[in-house]
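pipeline/complex-builder :: batch 7 item 3
reading input block
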Amino acid sequence: MGTGGAILRLAGHPLQAMRPQPLGTSRVTRTPYLLVAPLTVVLIVFFGIPLVLVVVVSFFDLDKFDIIPTFVLTNYAEVFGSSLTYALYAKTITYALIVWAITLVIGFTVSYFLVFHVRSVLVQMALFLLCTVPFWTSNVIRMISWIPFLGRHGLFNQSLIAVGITDHPLEFLLFSNFSVVIAYVHLFSLFMIVPIFNSMARIDRAVIEAAVDGGASRARVITEIVIPLSKTGIALGSIFVIALVMGDFFVVKIMSGGQSSSVVAAMSNEIAILQYPPAAANAVCLLIIVMLMVAAIMRLVDVRRELSG
Amino acid sequence: MAASGHIELRSVTKRFDQTLAVDDISLTIPHGSYCCLLGPSGCGKTTILRMIAGHETPTAGDIRIGGESVVGLPPVRRGTAMMFQNYALFPHLTVLDNVAFNLKVRGVGKAERHRRAREVLAQVQLDQFADRMPAQLSGGQQQRVALSRALITEPRVLLLDEPLSALDEFLRLQMRGELRRIQRELGITFVHVTHTQLEAIAVADAVVVMEEGRIEQAASAHEIYTLPATAYVARFMGGQNVLAGTVIAVNGGAVTLVDGTGARFATPVTSTAPAKGQEIFCCIRRDRIKVEKLRAPLSSVGEATNVLAGTVHAIEYQGSYVKVTIDVPGREQFVGNLPDHAFLTAPLDIGDAVVARWATEDVHLLTGDSTRTATGVRPLPLEAQRDGVRSR
Amino acid sequence: MTARSSNGRPWTFYALAAFFTLFVLFLYGPMSAIFILSFQGPTGGLTFPMNGVSLHWFKALVVQQRSGDFVGSFSRSIVLAIIVLAITVVISIMAGLAFRYRFRGATAVFYMAIASLIMPGLLLGLGVGLMFQFAHVSPAWFSSALGAQLTWTLPFGLLIMFAVFSRFNRAYEEAARDLGASPWQTLRLVVLPILLPGIIGVALFGFTLSYDEFPRTLIPIGSRNTLPLEIWAMTTDVTSPALYALGTLTTAVSFVVIAVALTSIAVIQRRRARRQRDRTPGPLGDA
């Protein structure tokens, strides 16, 4: 593993270690169960049970701010009966698709450059780290750093005026759909770069050279070899980015200046005024939609089989 | 030598899920001998080594070292030590700490274990590299560190898994002589796994040729090379041409057979001669073949015995001899290894029509599967074996 | 093929390099703006131009406490991040070791980890908050928030351990066993030291993901905030460059942690790296 290589291959081979690859003597032992127990317990207690509780609470009733343990469908009736819900989902899914498309182009291009055009492994690793370091810093800070940049008197407008492209500050830059998408791309493109980089890095160079020797153009090498062989990374990156955008509330709140919203942002408003059951119903609907989107991607690209192979 | 490194495998079988890796093998390796397990990849040779070492457990059968069953014992209590393919030197420890590892886990104090590790390293002229990391050594040096690390445990059996495969050709030839010398010096049992025929016959007292989880032949290196038991061994060892045919005549010490193309061969037989009409295999050493340009028309050799006519397919210069591959219509290619002076006095070219001839006494009857059951190895005296191999 | 420039690079190289450079500017450019603005003079505002250069807003953070409990939330965040780091490292190593065996339920645990990773953070926080509410336990940063953060750091740790173990050569373990090491000695003296760079990677993820986490922590945090929650609160009601000063400080802490982790990985790798390649064999097996 190169410097930092191991750490950065975060989505590289999730299932490889699960390949039937028994240790030296393939006896039935309790060891793996003991070793995996802490992980399982933490996930059940802090992911499994909370998930179940959200589903359960979505059927509870609400009296002002008190939760009444019963079984009602009013929360769902509210969710499905409100035209706001559909508008929010339309908005959120639109954000997700736009951001997905942009991060896909960025992720593919950056990975392609790093894998196939940077000759030195050391330089490659350094440039890869350069893309990765912001991931380890605060999302909120990275997001708000766009405010002085894109604002009316921000750096970008000032430069545009200085160069003479425009004579008055552009208003659409900040607190708009534009700034929301910019911030999403800024925060989440790494989740696309890393998996695509990993699957591209595994492509045998000899395959590319053989194709070029066989007379394939650069474009055909990309469409016939690079894209098919990196589709696992593309699928994983897509899952990450779509799930992150669908689950966001803070970027849309801050970067739209309150002019736009998303499903989870609306939910966080309900939570803020302790309206847990409707929020939970909303959460269940969102989870189902995200799961369907992830399932659709997994159906298109057999992530599991490709990862274990 | 306190403990005996006499190894005995009794009907050992190993299955991995559905795959049968080792199929009911019995084998005896005497104490103090150098034994090579030879075969293509996947033949089960490494599995056998790993079962002797204790890194795999047999599905059935017993493994005994020095007369006691070791199945279920951890490696360290078997008195074995293993040298891994690519050596598996610990990359985070210095050469000295690698060698001293066994002493460390046994609780030997730092000063004492370093002193002893230095001694062992000095024996292989590596003491000045003691403080280096393994990755800073060349392949040959790494190999000697691995050897030192294994030998510091004072094993009665040293198990070597493809010990020379990571080296370049030059070092490989040098190190195989070195391994043989060390084995003689220590007087312990060496079991060496390889897929290279020449490596096996160069170092070993006894060679075990394996195929698909079974032993094809276990014998001295000289015997394996010159007197193969089966057509598989004859082909695998590479020094022989295999002939097959039906017995048409039995007279005294020899039988005559005829193959599908009508060619006739004769082979000497010992006590149990095959019966008329029986299908048999025999082989003729490549270096006992005479090849000459064909002047007479082809039909005139048709009725002769131990003669084949064909065209030269390839000529490879091998230094002391020239390998001539001949296409013979209707049968597998035939190879003659001609001494270089013989070749140079009557040179051949690709496409030449030639005849190959040999003497009946150089033909060897292949006895088939008879060696597959319980196999003991009788090592020939080393020098006799060496001479045998060299005399070709 | 493609037209090549004089030094052998195809034109696409320059096009892609330009794209990459723009992307890096996009990543770092805006961040540098707030670093500069955090040194705004005492009368300066949230945007350019700079009204002088000062450390005024950094002092304001500590001295006036006008922006909330900066010192308390900062130290809480550090302590929490260290706890998360320790738990993540230990549990991820154990799980990584477990997944090298075949065991029943492996696929289920794996998919649960992945689901936990892509679960919208706020929803997970809601669930954890509900759980504590129903159990009549007050949520706190060291209980409910810790658990919520682990659902985020552990899947990452697990994925990194998969990648690390997939490159780990089993022969090292067998060699150790062969040389008489007990299973525990094998783990302690051989496996863990060899995997150390990967484990530092897990630690880096554990620390930074916890230190900067806020969607999952928001609901189950209890009464005392962590730093990211403090910042989140400030984004809505603080309109001074103190926000940027805080951003600069917290990013600086992240950078220090990243630098320490990456440097130690680099040092370990270099120590093990091959220094002299392709040495030609000498007469005595290059002794």
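note: Chain C touches chain B at residues 169, 171-172, 174-182, 185, 189-190, 193-194, 196, 268, 271-276, 279, 281, 284-287 (CB under 8 Å).
queue -> next item
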